Amino acid sequence: MFKKILSFFVPVNLVRRDSHISQKLEVTLNNGKLVLDSKNTNYSYGSLQRILRKGLHYIGFDRIRKFEHVLVLGVAGGSVIKTLSDDIKYKGKITGVEIDPKVIELANTYFGLAEVRNCTIVIEDAFEFVLKAKEKYDLIIIDIFKDAEMPGFLFEEFWINSINALLNVNGFILFNTMTLNKDHKDRNLAYKAAFNSDYSVRMYPKVEDHNELFTIKKLR
Ligand SMILES: C[S@@+](CC[C@H](N)C(=O)[O-])C[C@H]1O[C@@H](n2cnc3c(N)ncnc32)[C@H](O)[C@@H]1O
After folding, report:
1. Pairwise CA distance, residues 211 & 187, whole Å
2. CA 3 / ligand 1 centre spacing (Å)
3. Which of 17, 32, 154, 220 has the most CB within a 10 Å radius?
4. What are the C-alpha distances in Å from 181 to residues 22, 86, 186, 187, 211?
5. Residue of the nearest CA to atom 27 in ligand 1?
6. What region, left, alpha or beta, does residue 45 occupy, with left being phi > 0 and alpha being psi -120 to 50 degrees?
7. Per mean pLDDT, which range of 46-50, 83-87, 122-126 is the poorest?
8. How many angstroms is it from 2 CA to the middle of ligand 1?
9. For the whole model, what pTM was predicted?
10. Over the stretch 132-176, which tens digit does the pLDDT of each residue have?
11. pLDDT band at 208 (very low <50, low <70, confident <90, very high)
12. Where are the alpha helices (DSSP H) in 20-125?
């Protein structure tokens, strides 16, 4: 209780773990709420949860409730999974893919991820998972960061085509990106241009500071 009150004045660190993927993982109480951070950025809950919630809002909560299967690439503390289950009351299947087993340990211990009964977690590189995947999804949330860096494969044609092949018609991709400089902005414009007229692509710049969200609907 004391730590919770203190956290309204200064962030109170509860756990620190080394991770070869994210360099450092920290669970911190901030204004009475738990957040998961990597060395240089917020990974889960806090601003990250607000950003993805906005993306889901753009797609439409009513529409999402009718989806059958959601794929989350990059799970961390699982805040978007909690938004889906607790706020949106989504009851369909969720598959979460996360490369770092240490974040899943923290997600289960501190953020109650294991309590989400309709969610299955796969510990694997999302790139490998997508290569082998056979199922189709109605919503694919791409939120992959290594600390503050976005791996280059996320913007390559091969990955874009592989993800598109896993998406049902009328399904959506929600892609969270970070744009810190002009190169990143150009990279995102090139990403948008990679989709043909079978897709409706929307960009939401400056969702919070440096985040730019994409929603992409498969029309046919
Ligand atoms: C911003 S966090 C995800 C936050 C999460 N979507 C949420 O709702 O709380 C980014 C995550 O991507 C994971 N990641 C990085 N590279 C990955 C990869 N190649 N495959 C799967 N996960 C990866 C990191 O370990 C980290 O947990």
Report:
1. 14
2. 28
3. 154
4. 22, 35, 9, 10, 11
5. 76
6. left
7. 46-50
8. 31
9. 0.96
10. 999 999 999 999 999 989 999 999 999 999 999 999 999 999 999
11. confident
12. 46-59, 61-65, 79-82, 101-111
Tell me the C-alpha to C-alpha distance, in Å, between residue 169 and each of 198, 219, 220. 10, 6, 6
- The dotted CATH code for 43-218 is 3.40.50.150
Give the closest residue to 76 by CA, choosing from 42, 47, 53. Answer: 42
Distance (angstroms) between ligand 1 centre and the Cα of 1 equals: 30
CA of 145 to the centre of ligand 1 (A): 5
Q: Please state the length of the chain.
A: 220
Give the pLDDT band of residue 54 (cuts 50, 70, 90): very high
- What is the Cα–Cα distance from 84 to 95, expressed in whole angstroms? 12
* Residues within a 6 A CB radius of ligand 1: 21-22, 43-44, 48, 52, 73-80, 97-100, 103, 125-127, 143-146, 151
**Residue with CA at minimum distance from ligand 1 atom 5:** 75
